[in-house]
Amino acid sequence: MVFFKDATGDTVRRAVDHAKNFIADNPIDGVRYELAGGYVGVTAAANEEIEHSELIQTALILIVVMASVLVTYRSFTAPALVFVVLAIAVLVNRAFMGIRGIGLNVNTLPVTAVGIGIGVDYAIYILDRIKEEATHLPVEDAIVKTLSTTGAAVVFTAVTVVAGIFYWIVGSNLRFNSEMALLLTLLMGGHMIGAITILPMMIRIFKPRFITGDTGAQ
């Protein structure tokens, strides 16, 4: 019988690797080894499935979001702009998970899906308002007016949402609640910052035709 200090992804992975190495080094004719159950065994199986499906899930979510933006604006440039904002927020989130040693498991897996779903609207708000203002203003002026109005609303909304979950970061004794709140806060902050900085910057540089007047497919 073996006792484990915890059931984190790293501990489970090392335990399974040791078991597989032992099996490979000590074959017995007519004997087939199977991984046992128990909490660590079930966690190992769940983690393997998560590693397999996580990338597919994230890709499918992004495809659905990008398709919706494409249909709405009838421009391939629009989903490309939104994708950049979402991708940066997700990559920063994953990098933070790696730095803090937060494993990808059944608890943290839904964060990306939820974060994309509740954060993509910030980019859409900014994008749509700039498009509307650009019908009667130069792009630069449209961006300035958008950031002074809709941009302020986006910041206020993001801060309000984050304030509602920030308590769980410092006040919860449950690791699940604390990690979920921390990752959601980071994702929401990333979406908000990207929407009011990176997105306007890209529009200012590239001046996409669906913003400046040509709504045909690009």
CATH class descriptor: Mainly Alpha
In the CATH hierarchy, the architecture is Up-down Bundle
Low-confidence stretches: none
Quickly count the helices: 7
Order of helices and strands: HHHHHHH
CA-atom Rg in angstroms: 23 Å
How far do the termini sit from each other? 63 Å
Query: Largest sheet, described in full?
Result: none
List the helices and strands and how they pair.
Layout: H1 9-25, H2 38-73, H3 77-100, H4 109-133, H5 139-171, H6 175-206, H7 209-212
Can you characterise this structure?
It is a single chain. Helix 1 (9-25) packs across helix 2, helix 4 packs antiparallel against helix 5 and helix 5 runs antiparallel to helix 6. The longest helix has 36 residues, at 38-73. The chain has helices spanning 9-25, 38-73, 77-100, 109-133, 139-171, 175-206, 209-212. It has a single domain (54-212), classed as Multidrug efflux transporter AcrB transmembrane fold (Up-down Bundle). The chain is 78% helix and 0% strand. It has 218 residues and is an all-alpha fold.
